[in-house]
Design goal:
alpha/beta; Aspartate Aminotransferase, domain 2; 2 domains; 11 helices; 40% helix; globular
Length: 299
Amino acid sequence: MSKFDLTRADYCPETLAVRAGQERSQFGEHSEALYLTSSFVFKSAAQAAKRFSGEEEGNVYARFSNPTVTMFEERLAALEGAEDCVATASGMSAIMAVVLAHLKNGDHIVASNGLFGATVQLFSNILARTGISTTFVPQTDPAAWAAAIRPETKLFFLETPSNPLTEIADISALTVIAHAKGILVAVDNCFCTPILQRPLELGADLVVHSATKFLDGQGRVLGGAVCGPKKLTEEVFKYLRTAGPTLSAFNAWVLLKGLETLKLRVEAQSANAAQLAAWLEAHPKVARLLSWLAVTPTI
């Protein structure tokens, strides 16, 4: 098998979106192969034992290892400038994986009060039952984030731009506040995508995606992902391996195809939205242009 070399620094996002993570089988297929299998065979019982224990690299069971899913993970990691990526079944399962991988009973989250509604419900209801509490603060007020910190605070969670109000957070300012107290920062980047924003470069520790939205871009499949340094994502992988919020190989394959056109789509959508906003702002019958008219979010 041959894999696209990511060691060169001169590859553009368009190239990474098509070639990063690609691994060909002995058949030399042009498009990424779709591995629809629940498990994998081994040359011997000894090899199986090594694979299951982690002594030897290789695929074991599709709940936590599948070549098609791995290709998607490596491609998205390359686009985000991340060391590693763990794919999940949906954006919400990605958020859940981050929290349960890194927090425990008694820990505390500071989060934006403008988060996606399902995320608010997850933090307020489901995670609260586990003893993980959340304080919601204004997205755009770093002082409010700082004031909400407790001794047991372990995570800042923000979504910028927020869904659906498109409020913008100062990622760099919030990471300075959080890191001074040893707090992790996770950023939901599903609206901007790595084409418009790379939170890791602004100091964030983890990037979360609902791949269902712009990464797919055509409303076909669900998917999620967590990107960041290996020391943090490996904890997410441990959670995934046991709890099983797994991205299917088919959905990973569709998302790979979505990534190929990501830059073209995001730039075209942004240009169209800006043109529409300018036209509305100049229209004599429009008294006020709300910020959410300046973007084109999907579901």
